[in-house]
Amino acid sequence: MPTERRDTTAHAPTGNAQPAVSRRRTNGRACITCHQRKVRCDILEKGTPCSHCQIQNKPNCTIYEKKKTRSSRASNSRPSPVPLQPRHSSQQPQPQRHHHHHHQRQQPQCLTAPATPRATAALWPEVAVDPIARPSSSTSHYQHDSPSTMQDSAENEETYETRNLADFIGQDLPKVGEISRSERLYFIGTEFSNLNHLVRHRALRRDQKDVLHFGTRRLARKVPSVPEEALKLPPKALADELVTAYFAHVNPGFPIVDEDEFMTSYNGSDVPKLVSLPLLNAIFLVGAHVLSSTREDCRASTYTFFRRAKMLFDYRFEQHRETYLQVALLLTWQCDNLEDIVDNSWHWIGIGARTAFGMGMHRDARSSTLNTIDKRQWVRLWWCLFQFDVMVSASFGRPQAINLEESDTPMLDESHFQGIPHGNPTFAIEHTKLCIIFSTAMRRRVALRSTEADRAAATKEADEELAKFITQLPQSLQISHSNPDTWQATLHLSYHNFLILLHRPPPHQDPSRVSHHSATDHSICGDAVVAINSIFESLRARNTLCNLWLPSVHVLFTSLLHIANELNSPNPLIAAKSSRMFDSLIHTLRDISQYWIYAKSLLRLFEERAMWKKRQRGHVLGSSEDRTFQQSQESPTTRTGASEFSLRPDPLGVPSIMGDAPSTLQPSSAPVPGPAYEFNF
Fold first, then answer.
1. Sign of the Cα pseudo-torsion (376, 434, 405, 357, in order)
2. Which helix (H) or strand (E) holds 535?
3. Which class for 445: exposed (0-12), middle (13-18), buried (19 or more C-beta within 10 A)?
4. CA angle in degrees (0–180, nearest 5) for 48-53-55
5. For residues 377-392, average pLDDT
6. Per-domain residue ranges of the chain
7. How many Å separate Cα 172 from the centre of its chain?
């Protein structure tokens, strides 16, 4: 990733009589124009005008003089300055004693790792340490500054940041030339934005009247101090395995990362193009999740990678803003708790949506001067974000962050997959279309002011579009055999899940208000559960459940809830069929709970309910057989106490009953065979 080395030393006025403080510094002098643009200047070597000003015909090429700080004014008086001379390597600083002691006192406070963080064997101590590609934001100058230098640096940062708007408006608008990958940009927003209004007055070219994205400046070399643990990396061999797993099993269908660009940086030695450390840890996380079915060490390390990526995310370690969107999407592979709202997939997708809106990804950037790679990647990221938003919002029952009526981003096509050599554009395009259908229906169904007729019309329209979608599905995504691949399975799981959500009856439905479509709805839901169970059984048999993303757990939850109601059917044939289906789905839930904490919560819920129902049924059936024998053996006092004891356990008191009940009520240690009949929530 192209970056620019940042000079962290103070730009103090130089002289030949006062020795420099004992610290490392580079040529910090530049002309005013180069200083404002934050580009390297050769005014000391070439003289005036510098190369940049000469090429661009900039007048008044003079050296930028930084104003003196309070600390510099309070220091010892210096002789009058002499004309600037280039610094020679032969000059040796003569550190003063008080500076030396201060340097030693400041050193333990630095929390940033060395310039090249080495791979650590902390996660896998049995594997030899092998350093990998250096991160993009941790290869700058690291030094221990004095208080005056730190104050100078802070003032430089403040001056640099506060000049952004003035420099942007002061440049020739629109900027000539494409916006490179190493530049920041402004998204000027809608007509109600004052920035939009101001830019429209400045931009006079007619062919740019619809442009909303403008380049501003090069990325700053601002490197925050982060805990050293966040900069640790796994051994090279393991890192390669994790990266390969991610690009082989996840990125083809959800193209979040440009594979060609990333691998060029990851495998290359070009210093300006370095791997983003937050993104690298997020990729490690997803890769470890994919390998967790066969690698116990990978399963145990997922939280470590999540913690490092989140730490770097919170410290704003990366300068490329789109990286924060990529990391937010990838972090959804780790944590998901239904009752949590600040640390689950719904939360991370919300952060990603705000980042995308701030950059203007929801608007068509084809007329802008944005570089070609970003134009392709923005379209891919936007539609990945939209798919994630629809699926997670439906699973949590919360509002969607993205409204397509406010977006004119081009639809995905195969041209956007340049840079994704192993991509599956057919799946990405078709799954996006499927999410668009359900998103529209979901918004109309849950609208607070919609009537019953409006909801029925929304369902009918969605059925028509879903029928058209499934009949026109490309051959490569149709399930024509018993072993669907990951992307076929993901698409059909989403499709059948949407069918159940649209057609399942409401709880405690009033019999007098049963629709004439109830039988049809019941048939649609039943067929969908059968298809979902078949897909899960196939993936489970091939040990590939770990390749699925989080919504697969919610699909499983939807199916279990529907089939649990069928267990109470008065028809014994329906009940028997439902019980076999229920046991198979529970088996899948038990296997998939190894990879998702949310699945563990669901497994505990269903198993405890099933255990209580079986225990209740066993106690009720056994009581009638043993009552005669117990009454003949009991004394009158004991018989009176037994008549007051209820054999029906309280569902909220199962643990206490198991611990405090008489021995005759203790459940057998052997597992109770058969399904959990009468499974009723």
1. negative
2. helix 518-541
3. middle
4. 120
5. 96
6. 163-218, 228-488, 489-506+522-624+645-681
7. 37
- Provide the 3-class DSSP secondary structure of residue 216: strand
Q: In the predicted model, is pLDDT for residue 536 greater than 90?
A: yes
Q: Position of tokens 């000391």?
A: 44
pLDDT one-digit tens code per residue, 619-641: 555 555 555 455 555 444 444 33
Contact 601, 554 (CB under 8 A): no
Give residue 487's pLDDT. Answer: 96
Q: Assess contact for 251 and 135: CB atoms under 8 A.
A: no
Where does residue 72 rank: exposed (0-12), middle (13-18), buried (19+ CB within 10 A)?
middle
Least reliable range by pLDDT among 133-142, 172-181, 222-231: 133-142
> For 338, how many CA atoms within 13 A lie in the half-sphere containing its CB?
14
Question: What pTM, to 2 d.p., does this model score?
Answer: 0.68
**16-69 pLDDT tens trace:** 444 444 444 445 678 888 888 888 888 877 778 888 888 888 877 888 877 655
* Residue 644 neighbours by CB under 8 Å, 6+ apart: none
Q: What span, in angstroms and rounded, lies between the C-alpha atoms of 458 and 324?
A: 36
Rg (CA), the chain: 32
**Nearest alpha carbon to residue 559 among 464, 463, 494:** 494
3-state secondary structure of 567: coil
How many residues belong to the chain?
A: 681
CB distance 48 to 61 below 8 Å: yes
Distance between CA 518 and CA 503 in Å, rounded?
9
The identity of residue 593, as a single letter, is S
Between CA 114 and CA 120, with CA 115 as vertex, the angle to 5 degrees is 55
Distance between CA atoms of 392 and 385, rounded to whole angstroms? 11
Predicted confidence (pLDDT) per residue in 464-513, tens digit: 999 999 999 999 999 877 789 999 999 999 999 999 999 998 887 666 66
Q: What is the DSSP string of 79-128?
A: PPP----PPPTT------HHHHHHHHHHGGG--PPPSSPPB--SS-TTSP
ω into 174 cis (within 30 of 0): yes
Distance CA 335, CA 357 (A): 24
What one-letter code names the amino acid at 105?
R
